[in-house]
Amino acid sequence: MAKSGVYEADPTVKSTAELKKELQRIVKAIVEDDDEIGLIDKANNTLQALKDTRRQRSSSVRKVSESSTTSCPLEFRCPISKELMRDPVILSTGQTYDRPFIQKWLKAGNRICPKTQQVLSHTILTPNHLIRDMITQWCKNRGVQFPGPVQYPDENGLTEADHDLFLSLLKKMSSTQSEQKEAARTLRSLTKRMPSFRALFGESLDSIPQLLTPLCQTKSQTEIHPDLQEDLITTLLNLSIHDNNKKLVAETPMVIPLLLDALRFGTIETRTNAAATLFTLSALDSNKSLIGKSGGLKPLIDLLEEGHPLAMKDVASAIFNLCIQHENKARAVRDGAVRVLLNKIKNRVHVDELLAILAMLSSNQKAVEEMRDLGAVSCLLTLIKETNCARNKENCIATLYTICCYDRTKWKEMREEESKYGTLSQVAQNGTSRAKRKANGILDRLNRAFNLTHTA
User: Fold this and answer.
1) How far apart, in Å, do the first and last CA atoms of the chain sit?
2) What pairs with residue 98 in β-bridges?
3) pTM for the complete prediction?
4) Is residue 123 within 8 Å of 111, Cβ to Cβ?
5) Please, which of 41, 107, 435, 449 could form a disulfide with 155 given CB 3.0 to 4.6 Å?
6) Partners of 127 in the beta sheet?
7) Closest by alpha carbon to 395, among 445, 440, 426, 361?
8) Is 70 exceeded by the pLDDT of residue 455?
9) Pairwise CA distance, residues 217 & 131, whole Å
């Protein structure tokens, strides 16, 4: 193959674009030519030239930046770095900073303005286009080479464009219903796929109220478009997954009432996601109390009673989490939980989850009274014989132990079961350590009662 002559000139004086084209031609020649050793050397030389060119440019920009910093107007310098700002943004106090430096300040947990020491109402950063244009013009007038706007990712991996998109989507929540639906679908998708978008909602106290504007504007539930309601409730669910959002979401005044409305009146998908949201939020003890006081258990129990397969697991999980708190146990019993739970267990519906809730409620005396009247003892004894699940046996025997402690009228039934099948003794021998303790506790009481009767 004839020499191309492309390397007669010094490659280091060529532009980056020229060097890239040169490299493409050499690589193509290597692929097509058998005599490729010399071409490979040329490719290496071109790559080195390209590397040198970029290094020189980077050094040049750095020197320009350093010299510009010493002579630029004070308002063009970041108050934190004291350097010429590349991406000026406005904090909630009205002060302007270079984005990467103020983001580092906020990421460190600071919630005051570095310059004024004012407490920040939110941490959303707004681009200062005026200052950026002034800096660009100032550089141009002095013949200073200054790079254009840089898309700095923040600590969550989001760029300025992402922040702008976030704000524009929230703004659409106050627009027409078609725009609301489009924005809600987008936010649902973004908060599902990108944890960083979930975190954005924690940067401003106004974000969640803005998100829920369409649900607050309607006068009745019939006016809410079902798809819009589902997307907004599901977005709340996505936000609640982010640990730092749990407190903010639950304590936003309209959130719990809207979730309860969704539990009562939404589509089954919306109701299921509302239950899942309450479950996620209830990971915090303060939220358990807030949801319980707001009347959150009654619609959950009602949905449990309906028994829709799609909703059962999320509803049961939410009720279980809420009933960890003592006050919520009483609320659940008052709202009819015992009857609903026993009916589902008798029908062998989600036995694992519902037995765990029943065992938890058995520490409430009114719950025990209801269990006695609703035939819980025979149901639980039958389950112990049927199930191979050690955890289910444990929850059954734990509930029976509490009934045994509260109500002597059921001792006879338990004694007859033990005499006929040895059900309690089998658990005492083969159950979990907790189940063994409870079973032995029941047997001790029954034996003492029998001995006293026999002695008398």
Assistant:
1) 118
2) 88
3) 0.68
4) yes
5) 107
6) 89
7) 361
8) no
9) 38
